Amino acid sequence: MRIRAIEDGDVEDVVALWDACGLTRPWNAPHDDIALARATPQSKIFVGMDNGEIVASVLCGNDGHRGWIYYLAVAPERQKDGLGREIMAHGEEWLRSLGVPKVELMIRPENDVVRQFYERIGYEVEDRIVMSRWIDGREV
What we know:
about 30% helix; about 25% strand; 5-stranded mixed β-sheet; 4 helices; globular
């Protein structure tokens, strides 16, 4: 797999990959998330290419205090091939190059498969409460 930054022509394939992996939700428009990440210097989306196809992606962000991982995706038929581990290492290295000391991510509580993946690559569950509030006027 060859890893590179997302390009204009990749957006639809990345959204399709995220959909195939069950990562999208009605309140998070993936096209908007991609556009925002690409417009923000402290964010980067990487794609993993194999035989001309996008088979993996990860969105990395630096909030000035910690690094964050979003939208880690591996094509369902390629899961268990080590691609998730590989693209995560790439994203972590990019964050490290920015001086980020720690990476965080959020997992839906019912997503045991994903939690087990992250535990296998060295992530630990921390005792935290995540709180949020919509500030863009939307009614959810």
